[in-house]
Design goal:
The chain is mainly alpha-helical. It has one domain (about 1-245). About 85% of the residues lie in helices and about 0% in strands. The chain contains twelve helices and no strands. The longest helix has about 30 residues, at about 100-130. This is ABC transporter permease subunit.
Length: about 250
Amino acid sequence: MSSLTSAVYHPTVARLTYRALLGRRRSLILLALPVLLLIIAVAVRALGGADDDAATEILGGFALASMVPLIGVIAGTGAIAPEIDDGSIVYLLSKPLSRRTIVLTKLLVSISVTIAFTTLPILLAGMILNGNGERIASAFTVAAAVASVAYSAIFLLLGTVSRNAVVFGLIYALVWEALFGSLVSGARALSVQQWSLSLAERVAADGADITSEVSLPTGLTLLAVATILGTWYAGERLRSLKAAAEG
């Protein structure tokens, strides 16, 4: 069990990654959207009272469609892209660590940070908006958790393939997920947002107005495929960097 754990998670790599992600400037950026979500929730509740439709619109249209992928961009790319850009990844690759351990450790750190900065604010906002009526807050909290895993893998991969990972990540999050994933019917089925909504639809009560473009089995399958492929290819990219460093 100990050898299995060490092959998946390396404490020193994790500590360095947490330090990079939770520095003062990046922490302020990570906190900005959750704080805005809570401010919106308080304002809507104060002005209109408890409202299931408002809760669905805010948690689905803002939190899941925009906040979760944007935080995923910051955590996923930030877990590895800066080290590749400044060349410090070469030092890490020179250590007796497998590329799989490095990638999996950084993925776990990214997932934990993304979940921490999305699920709790979404749950609190949902409780403020309608007291978890129709299990809407619970549904979007679960959806945010599973989406965080897929986004972390996707953006970690992006951090290994491009020096402009943050820019491309923001374009993906704002254009594909927030815009096309919400408005364009053909693109919805290829959106992490919609895949996670399939789980939210199942968790929410029958009266909740939460729907997804894909079925639950399809959504869970696509989330798993995106996570596994993203993690695997990030490891392959790291292997090529290691080979280049050794050469």
